């Protein structure tokens, strides 16, 4: 194990972010490269190498956390990288974007602050890239089997890499102009610079994976024809149907889904646009939705020069400590201050939007809201609490309701859906259509990046068994597995 007294001698410490006044002037990541390195070995020493490491259960990938913590403490970064990549195809993604359910399950977290698992993870993989430890791993021989992967988000990329390394010829189809799915256009640059995606894509190309951009299955290629062309298909198209807010005034100009707003800001950073067609510059911005996507909208609005930013959440403000109803090692719903919230703006809880008000030209100018409270287990409006706030740009970040049904993919394949509107699958991640599998949010529903990678890895095993009759690929989760929660 790492230092037996590490958790006694050292308190939790994370890297200091760049000053707010500096970082809102650019789109670079909040933390300077290498900022964690001076403290990370000491932080890794806090890992107790528990007899039952609950962090394994908190993480759907089953990451070997005590092992790479020990190697990081000993400055054996190559061994740490090998252990990290044994269970995770893209630790630089999860190390930056995952909310770290592993830390919520850390045994040290019972009565202290947990180990900085996420920080150790991203330090290990960044050093691995810098030292050349991350290299292509092409298969020794080809199977002669072909697989199409629909969607290039974390689930699709994980499935594609696993199947390519197993010897199958894999082509990834992406409807956008670049590979990455929501990692590319949904995650702002200041949370993860896209160079991290680009170098993984180059690694996968060197291993043999093919990529087809600007090709939407269901519109550009009929799904049935695709199925005939390949021996197997993996659908990893995500859950991209945004939840709407059908209140009076919704039709006004200036009200957009988060996934209409965020991709345009990313396209500016890619050099495709000079100015985003939807911008917060000089406007009073209201973000409806208190989750991570809402926080991404907040940080983007700050960098675009918003006059003010207000984030609304219908639920009450979470507590800062675990409640009795969310005991260790479950993932608690706690009040979280992201880097975007550190940069300014107001957060308003327990409110519901009643209507939008516009000017004579049809542009939104005001948002009307009312306070809400729980009564008899249901949300109820509080009479006399109505008010309006200025809103010249509104982003709807209230989550997603399922996979895209408009492009014809579901109907053309003849796929069955479950009760929640997701694509149904069996224990092998197979759909009702022989040879067609589903991974990620398209089958699970809206979830975390770490679950998407786990789904991609697990679905790859199902595909490999379908194609060859057996598989040595790992399957960290079952389709029915859920997060450790109450």
Mean pLDDT, rounded to whole units?
Answer: 96
Q: Which structural class matches the secondary elements?
A: alpha/beta
Major sheet summary line: 5 strands, parallel
- The order of strands across the largest sheet is 3-2-1-4-16
Distance between the termini: 31 Å
* Beta strand %: 15-25%
| Helix run count | 19
The percent range for helix content is 25-40%
Unreliable spans are: none
Shape by Cα distribution: globular
Radius of gyration: 23 Å
Total count of strands: 16
Description:
Pathway: Amino-acid biosynthesis. Keywords: Amino-acid biosynthesis, Glutamate biosynthesis, Oxidoreductase. It comes from Streptomyces ramulosus. Residues 36-69 form the 4Fe-4S ferredoxin-type domain. There is one protein chain. By secondary structure, the protein is α/β, with parallel strands linked by helices. Helices cover 33% and strands 15% of the residues. The chain has helices at 6-9, 20-23, 37-44, 54-58, 65-73, 77-85, 91-97, 101-104, 117-131, 154-165, 182-185, 195-207, 223-229, 258-270, 292-303, 339-342, 409-413, 441-444, 449-468, and strands at residues 146-150, 169-173, 210-212, 232-235, 241-242, 255-257, 284-288, 308-313, 346-349, 351-358, 364-375, 378-381, 387-390, 393-396, 400-402, 436-438. The chain has a 5-stranded parallel beta sheet, sandwiched between helices. It has a 5-stranded parallel beta sheet with strand order 6-14-7-8-9. Helix 5 packs antiparallel against helix 6 and helix 6 packs across helix 9. The longest helix has 20 residues, at 449-468. The two termini are 31 Å apart.
């Amino acid at each position: 194990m790492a230092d037996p007294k590490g958790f006694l001698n050292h308190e939790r410490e994370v890297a200091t972010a760049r000053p707010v006044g500096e970082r809102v002037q650019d789109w670079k990541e909040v933390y300077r490269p290498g900022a964690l390195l001076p403290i990370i070995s000491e932080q890794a020493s806090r890992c107790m190498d528990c007899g039952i490491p609950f962090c394994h259960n908190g993480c759907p990938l089953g990451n070997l956390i005590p092992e790479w913590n020990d190697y990081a403490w000993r400055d054996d970064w190559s061994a740490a990288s090998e252990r990290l990549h044994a269970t995770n195809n893209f630790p630089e993604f999860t190390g930056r974007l995952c909310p770290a359910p592993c830390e919520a399950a850390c045994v040290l977290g019972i009565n202290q602050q947990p180990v900085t698992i996420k920080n150790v993870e991203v330090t290990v993989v960044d050093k691995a890239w810098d030292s050349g430890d991350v290299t292509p791993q092409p298969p020794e021989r080809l199977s002669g089997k072909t697989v199409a992967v629909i969607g290039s988000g974390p689930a699709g990329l994980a499935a594609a890499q696993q199947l390519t390394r197993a010897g199958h010829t894999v082509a990834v189809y992406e409807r956008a102009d670049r590979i990455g799915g929501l990692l590319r256009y949904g995650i702002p640059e200041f949370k993860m610079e896209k160079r991290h995606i680009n170098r993984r894509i180059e690694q996968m190309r060197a291993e043999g994976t093919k990529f087809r951009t600007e090709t939407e299955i269901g519109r550009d290629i009929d799904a049935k024809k695709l199925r005939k062309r390949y021996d197997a298909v993996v659908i990893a198209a995500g859950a991209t149907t945004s939840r709407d807010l059908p209140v009076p005034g919704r039709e006004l100009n200036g009200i957009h889904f988060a996934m209409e707003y965020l991709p345009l800001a990313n396209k500016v950073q890619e050099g495709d646009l000079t100015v985003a067609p939807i911008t917060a510059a000089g406007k009073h911005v209201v973000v409806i939705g208190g989750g991570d996507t809402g926080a991404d909208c907040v940080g983007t609005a700050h960098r675009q020069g918003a006059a003010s930013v207000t984030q609304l959440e219908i639920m009450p403000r979470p507590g800062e400590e675990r409640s009795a109803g969310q005991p260790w090692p479950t993932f608690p719903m706690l009040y979280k201050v992201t880097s975007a919230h550190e940069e300014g703006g107001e957060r308003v809880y327990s409110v519901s939007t009643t209507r939008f008000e516009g000017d004579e030209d049809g542009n939104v100018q005001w948002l009307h809201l009312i306070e809400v409270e729980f009564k008899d287990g249901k949300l109820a409006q509080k009479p006399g609490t109505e008010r309006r706030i200025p809103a010249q740009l509104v982003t709807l970040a209230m989550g997603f309701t399922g996979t895209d049904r408009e492009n014809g993919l579901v109907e053309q394949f003849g796929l069955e859906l479950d009760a929640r509107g997701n694509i149904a699958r069996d224990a092998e991640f197979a759909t009702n259509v022989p040879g067609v599998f589903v991974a990620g949010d398209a089958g699970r529903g809206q979830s975390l990046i770490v679950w998407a990678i786990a789904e991609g890895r697990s679905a790859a095993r199902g595909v490999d068994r379908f194609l060859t009759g057996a598989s040595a690929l790992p399957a960290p989760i079952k389709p029915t597995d859920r997060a450790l929660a109450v």
